[in-house]
């Protein structure tokens, strides 16, 4: 499942 | 990646390095709250569950490993290192941080972006991080002597989230439908908790005095 963009942050 | 987020990550990295340096070199954790450190270790454990399954970038993975490694080693030092643990002020570090964990978990189960295990744990880590500094701020109020390194540690920890807020504003205006209320609200609450600390920190810096918080 495509990881929502917001989880590209630490 | 934008300058605010990079500055935020570097400030956050610097805060944990300042703390590790203090504990490792002078073998003392005076004025540091073990409860806050344990909460942060839990925050990173809950947030970085997908560190090996969801590769984003080398930078992202390396930073996650650093944050996980540093937070757990700080907890290890304060709990088990025979010299460091002696300087831990457990009579003063009495904030019942377990009372923070459960409400954050319940809230994450109620308010989240997607009701999956990973997403709930990620949301839990956001809520927990927002309040993780409380035991440390309470301890600072109690211990009169706030040494420079501990003061700098708390300041940097607060500054990193403030920079992240600028990052969210920037991303909101530059990326279509980049909207994450949960992240924004918990990040704002987290930064506001530092407000009075920032005020006294700035006052002490301006008057070139030792930092002390009113009882």
TrEMBL record, chain B:
The keyword Endoplasmic reticulum applies. It comes from the Eukaryota. Signal peptide: none annotated. Keywords: Endoplasmic reticulum, ER-Golgi transport, Membrane, Protein transport, Receptor, Transmembrane, Transmembrane helix, Transport. One of its GO terms (biological process) is protein retention in ER lumen. Its main location: endoplasmic reticulum. It is found in: Endoplasmic reticulum membrane. One of its GO terms (cellular component) is endoplasmic reticulum membrane. It holds the Pfam family ER_lumen_recept. GO terms for molecular function: ER retention sequence binding. The keyword Transcription does not apply. The chain crosses the membrane at residues 55-77, 98-115, 121-140, 152-170, 182-202. It is a multi-pass membrane protein. Belongs to the ERD2 family. This is ER lumen protein-retaining receptor. It comes from Cicer arietinum (Chickpea).
């Amino acid at each position: 499942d495509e990881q929502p963009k917001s989880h590209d942050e630490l | 990646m934008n300058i605010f987020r990079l500055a935020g990550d570097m400030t956050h990295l610097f805060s944990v390095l300042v703390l590790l340096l203090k504990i490792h070199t002078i073998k003392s954790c005076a004025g540091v709250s073990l409860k806050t450190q344990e909460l942060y270790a839990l925050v990173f454990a809950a947030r970085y569950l997908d560190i090996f399954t969801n590769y984003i970038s080398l930078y992202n993975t390396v930073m996650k490993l650093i944050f996980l490694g540093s937070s757990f080693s700080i907890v290890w030092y304060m709990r088990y290192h025979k010299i460091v643990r002696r300087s831990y002020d457990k009579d003063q570090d009495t904030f019942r941080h377990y009372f923070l964990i459960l409400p954050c978990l319940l809230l994450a189960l109620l308010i989240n972006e997607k009701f999956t295990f990973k997403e709930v744990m990620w949301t839990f880590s956001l809520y927990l991080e927002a309040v993780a500094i409380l035991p440390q701020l309470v301890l600072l109020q109690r211990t009169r002597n706030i040494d420079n390194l501990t003061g700098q540690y708390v300041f940097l920890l607060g500054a990193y989230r403030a920079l992240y807020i600028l990052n969210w504003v920037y991303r909101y205006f530059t990326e279509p439908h980049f909207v994450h209320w949960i992240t924004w609200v918990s990040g704002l609450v987290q930064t506001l908790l530092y407000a009075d600390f920032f005020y006294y920190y700035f006052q002490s810096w301006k008057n070139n005095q030792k930092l002390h918080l009113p009882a």
